[in-house]
Amino acid sequence: xxxxxxxxxxxxxxxxxxxxxxxxxxxxxxxxxxxxxxxxxxxxxxxxxxxxxxxxxxxxxxxxxxxxxxxxxxxxxxxxxxxxxxxxxxxxxxxxxxxxxxxxxxxxxxxxxxxxxxxxxxxxxxxxxxxxxxxxxxxxxxxxxxxxxxxxxxxxxxxxxxxxxxxxxxxxxxxxxxxxxxxxxxxxxxxxxxxxxxxxxxxxxxxxxxxxxx
Length: 214
Fold this sequence. Notes:
This protein is an alpha/beta fold. The protein has one domain (4-211): Vaccinia Virus protein VP39 (Rossmann fold). The protein is 36% helix and 18% strand. Strands 3-2-1-4-5-7-6 form a 7-stranded mixed β-sheet, with helices on both faces. Helix 1 packs parallel to helix 3. The radius of gyration is 16 Å and the shape is globular.
């Protein structure tokens, strides 16, 4: 049974995504116990963030869907997924979209693989691999959260993307991103998350989209 403050955070997520089915809510609810279990063995996410899992990790991941929607035929890669963010929450939200979650740290991928198995995400695969090993022209979107500077993310993502209008790199960023954007020279669309989620945690948090066809 989830703790009261966890239930409160779940209700926050449901308020932004009222279309969630009972199955999807149960999958989200299961995440707390799974990450609590694994965090006692491997430092998957910051221990101080565990009680804020649903706001700081799950809702933050799902915030991408406030601006971009994925469809059943699409293939998405999450580069440097870490403990499974943003890939796992988005895979719950879009159960017919195909997701590949990759990370260079094997022990984190083992956690992600277990979470995927436990909550029965059948359209998701997690692999221990580096971004440079990804196949070319395979994915509609590449995702990333707090992994590398934008210019490096774009260098990894661009070769993997299908060269069609609307495809691109979507990443979650925080703080002053001015220099990072200027250094990339890739002209991202920038969405301020606090304009959509008016909570303190989302101040100076952004969703950036770099289209393949810019």
